[in-house]
Amino acid sequence: MEHRKLEREDVFRMIEGGKARDSKEAERMPEDRLYTVRDIEALPEGERAELIDGKMYMMASPALTHQELLGWLYFKIRLYIMEKGGPCRVILSPFAVYIKDDDRNYVEPDISVICDPDKLDEKGCHGAPDWVVEIVSPSSRTVDYIRKCALYEEAGVREYWIVDPQEKSVMVYGFVQGTSKQYAFSEPVKVGIYEDFFLDFGEVA
Prior knowledge:
single chain; alpha+beta; tt1808, chain A; 7-stranded mixed sheet; 3-stranded mixed sheet; globular; disordered N terminus
């Protein structure tokens, strides 16, 4: 499948219209309450959640395919960064990203590439990573494709990838350039924040 440009409305129709609808959307806490980072920190041990504009979304345990893709991505990105040098660091989930550096938004992206060391401390990343990768799970489709996409763009993430094992596709948003493209796993996918970095999902698919 050749990669193609998708408008945000196309993606919304794809998710909400049923083509790739959630089998079980990530559980969201009651509508009438706004949560803060303190509520995240107070969760029982072993429970994880994210905040988007004060709404809490519980996180399910990842499946085998998710973890295999996560490990492969981390290895490839870390190897590239080590070979090229520079200030960027790649960090995999679970890792706290205070995406707007406020108390109403908190995420744990599968992969975060952060090139400003001043955003990092032992607690997490304070502000937007340069590049975020999310691997879609059956319970996270609407959150990843719609809610997080809007949050990452608004917060200042430069590039956002949605890796979809079910569809065997990668959505690439270049928020700085205002671009969006969909790739099949059979195609090399260009990393926008680097000049000469491609990922071939055929190695792991």
